[in-house]
Amino acid sequence: MLPITNFILLSAVIFTIGAVGVFFKRNIITILLCIELMLNAANLAFVAFASYFGDTTGQLFVFIVMTVAAAEAAVGLGLVIAIFRNRETLNVDEANILKL
Amino acid sequence: MFDAITNYFSNLTPEHYFFFLFAIVAIASALEVVMQRSPLYSAVALIFTMAALAANFVLLKAQFLAAIQIIVYAGAIIVLFVFVIMLLNVRAEESRLDRFTALRWIAAPSAIVLFAGAFAAIRFSNLDTLAPSPTAAAAGTTERIAEVMFTKYLLPFEAASVLIMMAIVGALVLAARAKEYDAELSGIENQEVPPKPEPEAQPEEVEVS
Predict the structure, then answer these.
(1) Please, what is the Cα angle at B158 between B157 and B164, to 5 degrees?
(2) What is the pLDDT of residue B192?
(3) How confident is the model at residue B1 (pLDDT cuts 50, 70, 90)?
(4) Alpha helix ranges (H) inside chain B
(5) ipTM of the complex
(6) What is the CATH number of domain A4-87?
(7) Could you give the CA distance from residue A6 to residue B10 in angstroms, rounded to a whole number?
(8) CB neighbours of residue B161 within 10 Å
(9) Does residue A27 sit in helix, strand or coil?
């Protein structure tokens, strides 16, 4: 197999791209997509180390991360719908008060 | 520096070519996710990233996770996103000025610092000396993962299922409450609710038709 550095570097690059997206984008759906990107980068690092140590535990953690990502997407998109119904916008800067 | 590069390219295997192909696809589509103005195109670009990462999982001999990545991420989560984007009828991002422009000037250096930190951690950690495990191929099979999941890590598995349950209930509550408040805002709840049609009348109609 290739040196593990390749996979970890790819993971770091994708994580940084996801973080940049969270920093720069103001559309809440795109921010959620960028969070998925960061979770995927973490998954790649998990799988790389699990594979290089020959240990299944890391792969199991990826499975758990995917579960959490699915739950996060469901609740996050429910919130997006709730915000859009009340505010008529998806800009996160507009959603700055707690009052409905 | 140049010697290192030529050394690196002199012993390339097909595995390297596949890794570089899928790494380039993953990075390009990840950039596309961030740079697209329309969220729908971002979601479609994210599917490409997921697929490229699934290919990387196969290179790492994690076949089960590669399949799960395609089925769960590209097949379920992204479809959910696309559903919501189409449901809300989202237009492309307006190009008006954002309120927090100062935040963007802080964001770019902090992104650079983040990557530099990760890069330094990788560079100075002797990761290259980590030899590939001979049992890697056996560790990624469905059989092995199921064995570990339902014996040693049964509790996290059950906790994950409880989390999914809570997420379902939470998403339902959020959507239902939003509707309630909508009705409240437009004053519908003050009006009389029309009486429901009698259920006994239905079978007769069915018989007639």
Answers:
(1) 95
(2) 53
(3) low
(4) 2-10, 14-35, 39-59, 63-68, 78-88, 101-123, 136-139, 142-149, 154-185, 201-208
(5) 0.91
(6) 1.10.287.3510
(7) 16
(8) 11
(9) strand
Collapsed DSSP state (helix, strand, coil) of residue B63: helix
Write out residues 72-91 of A within 8 Å (CB-CB) of B. 72-75, 77-82, 84-86, 90
Find where tokens 């919130």 sit: A79
Flag whether residue B46 sits within 8 Å of chain A, measured between CB atoms: yes
Would you call B12 an interface residue with chain A, using a CB distance cutoff of 8 Å?
no
Q: Where are the domains of chain A?
A: 4-87
Structure token pair of residue B95: 């190009």
Which pLDDT band, with edges at 50, 70 and 90, does B5 fall under?
A: confident
Q: Structure tokens of B111?
A: 């992104």
The residue with tokens 């984008």 is A25
B47 is a domain residue: yes
* Torsion on CA atoms B171, B174, B179, B183, rounded to nearest 10: 170
